[in-house]
Amino acid sequence: MTDLDIAEVAHRAGVAASTLRFYEEKSLIASTGRRGLRRQYDSGVLERLALIALGRTAGFSLDEIAQMFAPDGRPRIDRRVLSAKAEELDRRIHELTALRDSLRHAAACPAPSHLECPTFRGLIDAAASGGVTAPERRPPERR
Q1: What is the pTM of this model?
Q2: How many helices (H) and strands (E) does the chain have?
């Protein structure tokens, strides 16, 4: 197996080199050394980066993702954690579907103003009582 240069890993994984360095700081990946000033990575880092990207897409934090790897770097993913995240996504999908449908209704509602639309009023009331929440915002990755 041949080591890959940081630029090659960044290109193949579709992330910035600064993201790779940040992931290394967080102990999510590890370089195998340097060739001159450029970090080198084992080609297995590409699969690990794909798992990190999948975890981020599913809504896991970097700290949660870090816990999904054993000390030897192999994936160690608790199926209960995956199941709980799937349930969380189901709840969010349900909430977003209801929100989408309400917004579509309000956009086409014949009421003179949105505030006179019972569906839109219901949406406002739900938001006022905490029933409509914004999605969790992940901090941007350093690039």
Answers
A1: 0.74
A2: 6, 3
